[in-house]
Design a protein that fits this description.
Elements: H1 5-27, E1 35-40, H2 42-50, H3 61-77, E2 84-85, E3 91-96, H4 101-120, H5 122-128, H6 138-154, H7 160-171, H8 195-203, H9 209-215, H10 218-223, H11 241-248, E4 251-253, E5 258-260, H12 264-285, H13 287-304, H14 313-324, H15 331-355, H16 366-369, H17 372-379, H18 383-386, H19 393-397, H20 405-412, H21 428-434, H22 452-459, H23 471-476, H24 482-493, H25 496-503, H26 506-512, E6 516-520, E7 525-530, H27 533-544, E8 552-559, E9 564-569, H28 578-592, E10 596-604, H29 607-615, E11 623-631, E12 636-640, H30 643-649
Parallel strand pairs: 1-3, 9-10
Antiparallel strand pairs: 2-3, 4-5, 6-7, 8-9, 10-11, 11-12
Helix pairs in contact: 1-4, 2-3, 4-13, 5-12, 6-12, 7-12, 7-28, 13-14, 13-15, 15-24, 25-27
Length: 665
């Protein structure tokens, strides 16, 4: 996209930062996809944002709406896109030509960390097959999908509006996929005779009502559906509604007022949009982890390793303050703080493990026996690693560990500018020591915050408790890479739900002043309700499970033996918006072709409940009622659920069992 002289000048200036940022990322242990960087102007950036980071998408009105919203946000709200990168192999990142050099460097370091996350997180591997070298090739896939939709729209027998409406129907339920299973482009279809097709065939035979009633009665019709197995299917609730509709759904023909087979183009479009839903799912499932990971390593490279030079640092500090200071639930801030907490916690565990092996030190007397100020001094990086410049290379040469001696020799020959890029003469262990988290000023109190309970927990696994004769010997044996290695393990296997569930602790909540708040029906405003980690965690998990959207599963494709579709809302305490649910059922009806049903639980608070609660200075208890909403193409009916149906949709707690056991890290 470097199509003008100014863009080319910007690109020329960024060749060195791009090259060196990638080299630094790899020195720090990251393994990113290769990244192509593109220089774009403001309108091009807005278009790319509208297209979810790609240059080509299928024709549809939603892209224009997103483009207009982004442009207005830039113009009236002051929003600015600092970075845009897509999950592809190679990845593509887009830099706005009007950004300052400090902003460009920040974006580049941020992007390198994103590319590492894309390449190494197992949830992204669910789409690609998780094999080395099997990157997503997303740009090519989306281009093929664009051709598919364009071909349908170009068909003289198909109205463009019909194609757009079909796309609208699918997009309405695009998150109704099995996000926790590997992507399969087309599942095996169960062949099941359709009662309506059989009845239509019989009507064409000219049989009398007497013969129809005696020979082809209701019992006979139902037997024709299969091999005598249960007439209800699937056997267990199916979370991939899009695949189920693709296998068993039909289109609703408004002229005949009957279901008819989908046209080939309709199945092709459904297949394409389902594939895109699976492709984008990991990005939504790991928003906090991914943005926090990128913010962490961006800060490491730009600030701590001096990738932003003295003239750029103030601009960079302002850049990161704006990103981390954005209001609301900020994934950059929450994610970065959690990654830093994990690093500190693992480093602390490593240090405590070594100190509890010092002769005379136990978990019971730890705080009285160990001088933590002295420990902090011992953990500080060796001066030769901490202060690197061209006049002190001999000090580095004298070190046996932490130094990349080949690079050091090149630096001595003048081939490496160590004053500008001191990290080049260090190896991974040397960089870990140079940036050891527990000696940073903001983390000096982490060791002292270890509780007796945590000390006892670590002490249970200390068997050789007289391994070291002194604190100095113990600290000399500390693995400075422990925190980074633990972060890499977690980056590989977790998603946002499991990440928050596993690592958001009371210590973290207290340290960063997190709390929950609720709408108070009695007073009509919002109130802070808890600072307990369990409550904070539950509140966050409800926002991230299934992208914060309701989990809808297929319970029966032959409900009541009438070919009706029965869906179930997996209820975890958060009620559906019934109005929106009904609008969605209208869309699903067009994809199923026959009546559709939705089981859910409705929560109600009456005016009387609110008044009584206000007088008693407490919140009203909502009434819960299980209901089934049915739509037949003309109108809605609502009925109560049976006890069995109610049990089928109630979650025991929060539905966030989202990681295979073998992935646990």
């Amino acid at each position: 996209m470097t199509t003008n002289y100014h863009a080319q000048r910007v690109a020329d200036k960024l060749e060195e930062p791009v090259r060196e940022a990638n080299a630094l990322a790899e020195k720090l242990g990251l393994e990113p996809y290769p990244v192509n960087y593109w220089i774009v102007d403001n309108d091009e950036m807005n278009q790319l944002i509208a297209y979810d980071g790609f240059q080509e998408r299928y024709p549809h009105w939603r892209w224009g709406m997103k483009f207009d919203r982004q442009r207005k946000q830039n113009q009236y709200v002051g929003g600015k896109a600092f970075e845009l990168v897509n999950n592809d192999d190679p990845s593509n990142a887009f830099l706005q030509e009007s950004n300052s050099l400090a902003d460009q460097k920040a974006v580049i370091t941020h992007v390198e960390a994103h590319a590492d996350f894309f390449a190494n997180n197992r949830w992204f591997g669910l789409f690609t097959g998780d094999e080395p070298g099997s990157g997503p090739k997303a740009a090519a896939m989306l281009s093929r999908h664009a051709r598919t939709v364009e071909s349908a729209m170009a068909d003289p027998d198909v109205e463009r509006s019909e194609v757009e409406r079909w796309i609208d129907n699918v997009l309405c339920i695009e998150d109704a996929i099995d996000q926790h299973s590997a992507f399969v482009r087309q599942r095996a279809r169960e062949e099941r005779p359709d009662r309506e097709d059989i009845e239509e065939a019989l009507s064409g035979l000219g049989l009398s009502e007497t013969v129809r009633g005696e020979v082809f009665d209701e019992e006979w019709l139902e037997r024709q559906r299969g091999d005598g197995s249960s007439e209800s299917f699937p056997e267990t609730p199916d979370p991939d509604l899009l695949a189920f509709l693709r296998e068993h759904g039909k289109q609703y023909d408004g002229e005949s007022e009957r279901a008819s087979e989908m046209e080939p183009w309709q199945r092709e479009v459904l297949d394409a949009l389902r594939a895109e839903a699976y492709y984008f799912a990991p990005q939504r499932m790991t928003k906090v982890m991914n943005e926090g990971w990128a913010a962490y390593w961006e800060s490491m490279m730009m600030a701590e390793e001096g990738f932003a030079d003295g003239n750029e640092f103030i601009d960079y500090a302002d850049h990161q303050a704006r990103v981390l200071g954005s209001p609301g639930l900020n994934p950059y801030k929450l994610g970065k703080e959690l990654w830093e907490y994990i690093e500190n916690d693992e480093n602390r565990r490593e240090v405590i493990d070594k100190l509890l092996r010092v002769e005379g030190v136990t978990w019971r007397n730890f705080h009285e026996t160990v001088d933590l100020d002295r420990v902090s001094e011992l953990l500080a990086p060796r001066e030769a690693l901490d202060r690197i410049d061209g006049d002190r290379l001999d000090e580095l040469a004298a070190l046996e560990t932490g130094v990349d001696h080949d690079a050091l020799e090149r630096a001595r020959r003048g081939e490496i500018d160590v004053d500008r890029y001191p990290w080049k003469v260090l190896d991974y262990e040397g960089l870990a020591e140079r940036h050891y988290s527990l000696v940073k000023p903001q983390n000096r109190g982490v060791l002292g915050r270890i509780t007796q309970t945590d000390l006892e927990r670590v002490g249970r696994y200390v068997l050789d408790d007289a391994l070291y004769g002194s604190v100095e010997e113990a600290i000399a044996d500390v693995d400075r890479t422990a925190g980074w290695r633990r972060m890499a393990e977690i980056r590989e296997s977790h998603n946002d739900v499991t990440f928050i569930d596993a690592f958001l602790t009371q210590e973290f909540v207290d340290r960063h002043d997190y709390f929950t708040y609720e709408y108070a029906h009695a007073t009509g405003d919002y109130r802070a309700t808890s600072t307990d980690a369990a409550d904070v965690k539950k509140k966050l998990l409800l926002q991230f499970t299934n992208f914060g959207k309701p989990t809808i599963e297929v319970h029966d494709g032959n409900f009541a033996n009438r070919n009706e579709l029965l869906l179930g809302h997996r209820y975890n305490g958060v009620a559906l918006d019934v109005g929106q649910a009904k609008q969605t059922l209208v869309r699903v009806f067009e994809l199923w072709g026959r009546p559709v049903n939705l089981m859910t639980i409705r929560k109600e608070v009456t005016d009387k409940d609110v008044e009584v609660a206000r007088r008693r200075n407490r919140e009203p208890e909502p009434t819960e009622q299980g209901i089934r909403i049915r739509y037949d193409g003309e109108g809605f009916e609502t009925s109560e659920l049976t006890d069995e149906q109610l049990a089928a949709i109630e979650a025991s707690d929060i539905d966030y069992d989202t990681k295979p056991e073998e992935w646990l890290a």
